[in-house]
Write a structure and sequence with these properties.
The protein is mostly helical. The protein has 13 helices and no strands.
Amino acid sequence: MTALRWLLALGISVAGLWFALHGADWETMSATVKNLRSPFWLAFFPLVVLFEFTVRSIRWKLLLDPLKPAPLKVLFPITNAAFFINNVLPFRAGEFARIYWTSQKTGVPLSSCVAVLAVDRLFDMATLLTMTFFVLLNKSALFQSRKPIVLFATVTLGLLAAMALLARFPAPFKSWMEKPAVPRFLTRWAHQFIEGSQALRSTSTFLLAYLLSLSFWTVFILVLRFLASLFSFSLSFTDAAFIEIAMCFGVLLPSAPGYVGTLEAAGVAAFAMLGFDRNVALPFLLIVHFSQIMSTVVLGIPSLWIAGLKVHVPAADRPAP
């Protein structure tokens, strides 16, 4: 099964790279890179990723605090290392590492950390949905059909509502899991999962988590606009948001480590819909992608070492069934 998953991921990455590179003029792309204005600005890209990881760590702490307050100095390296793992291993292995490391370092039950991760990612989805509506209002022609947006909105808002119900009315759900037919270990894990949604009981926490999410997504859109100017073309805020949306959906697909191929394919398709030539879009996407990966390496490897985080889960440390 593992080999099959690896083959599927590699196949999707190869297909994505073929789509992105098909018909590209290497001489034109090389000239585009050579004519890059003030390339030294790319050296500051890790600061952008540092800002994102810092805000993500604050949001992670905000969602964990109702369970057990944890210092930011513990959660920050976990966030850095988890996103590094996401870029070097397939199938978003960093997410599993993040909940394991968080449970190990804070003492919060593993199933509660799973619920916190679910809420954390739902805020990303809610922010992505906000960006999608923004683009729809400003450039509706980019969306030939409204059905995918309606589906995405239904799934996002439905899952948020479900987690909010677990948070605000835990007793009925806990009692439902206490039936004799339900194994005791499953009941315990379900109770801990429900407790993991506690942050959604507070309206102020909900709003703050959403605003934190919106902040780093907005900053990255502004960075895309700035980087476009280095390539001697301009992107409106709406255009940059649309490209960011496309790249986000691209990396959701299973792929080789680092989201290779899927990000480029989604980005090239988005640029084409905005009227940009592939030979302009592809060098931009490759440099942005490379800068992202290198930034996670620069931040992730020291975090693994400083915090004493292990990539594997020793058998003795695995939760008992």
